[in-house]
Amino acid sequence: MYTIKQAAARTGLSVAVIRVWERRYGVVEPGRTAAGYRLYDDGAIDRVRRMRGLVDAGWAPSQAARAILDGTSPDEMLGTGAAPSAGSVALPGPTPTGDVAWLNLRLLGAARALDDAGIESALGEGLALLGVDAAIEGFILPALVEIGAAWARGELTVAAEHAASNSVMRRLAGLYEAAATPSSAVDCVIGLPPGSRHEIGALAFAVACRRAGLRVLYLGADVPVASWIAVAREHQGAAVALGAVTRDEADSAAKVAAALRSERQDLLIAIGGAGQARAAEATSGILLLPPGLRDGAALLARRIVAGAAAAG
Asked: Structurally, what CATH architecture does the domain formed by 100-178 represent?
């Protein structure tokens, strides 16, 4: 039998996460000592490890717990249970339940210390506590903005900013794959125009769209105009979603949108980001996506469904 601290060490999670999973999802029902302290057996440790593996793979905590409790969780998602590096010092302690500010501090501290295991631990804990959609939109992306601002103020090195950004990209890539729909059809093509390399927001939007049920082809950063035209020809029924953050990216996105509209008058073209209005000025019928990832994905999904119904 193990105490909750021992269970946390064996699963690589914080005490706070284990308590949340116990109380909110019922994935474990620990015994109690005479003094009321929790005790976990090997079966409970195994269930927590399995749930961690599923959540790390992109499952919502509620879905992961349900799969484990009804015996349908895939064995290949079994988590390793490896604890965070013992060298992860100078970081805040366990995250209070739902405290995004504390998660931000953990991520910033880990980035500053160039502690890759600490960065991964903070990201994993945010996903476990908040769920995929809320963690990306309410914790991960705002934290990266703060990390970028800290770098601009000279408080973080380029290496620290890159370490955090690359960890986020790896995590988003895993979530994108986990949300895949087995199909060769494509509902929406998502990517960035030539010269644009602000890829994290675009990939996060691709994850949100897949989780909203859309079959997404993600092209990534710095896609030439000719390649956009080729993709539009190949996937006749698909919409296109472009990102435009800076002024230069907005101008580049405008060129892509104009070229796509010349190629296909029927094409649904959506643009998101701070430069979306500028990018849409010269091309008619552009769908401006709202700021929120889930709101944007939901709007795009509705427009795609409506367009398919009208065409049919």
From this structure: Orthogonal Bundle (1.10)
Task: Spell out the alpha helix ranges (H) of the chain.
Answer: 4-11, 15-20, 42-56, 61-69, 100-112, 116-130, 132-135, 141-152, 158-178, 199-211, 225-234, 247-263, 276-280, 293-311
pTM of this prediction? 0.73
Query: What is the SS3 assignment for 260?
Result: helix
> What confidence score (pLDDT) does residue 80 get?
38
By DSSP bridging, strand 286-288 and strand 239-243 are unpaired
The tens digit of pLDDT for each residue in 93-146 reads 444 445 677 788 788 888 988 999 889 988 988 898 888 999 999 999 999 998
* C-beta atoms surrounding 101 within 10 Å: 10
Radius of gyration of the chain (CA): 22
What is the reported pLDDT for 91?
Answer: 36
CATH 3.90.1300.10 fits 188-311, yes or no: no
CA triple 228-234-239, angle to 5 deg: 65
How far apart (Å, rounded) are the C-alpha atoms in residues 239 and 186? Answer: 9
Domain spans in the chain, listed from the N-terminal domain onward: 4-76, 100-178, 188-311
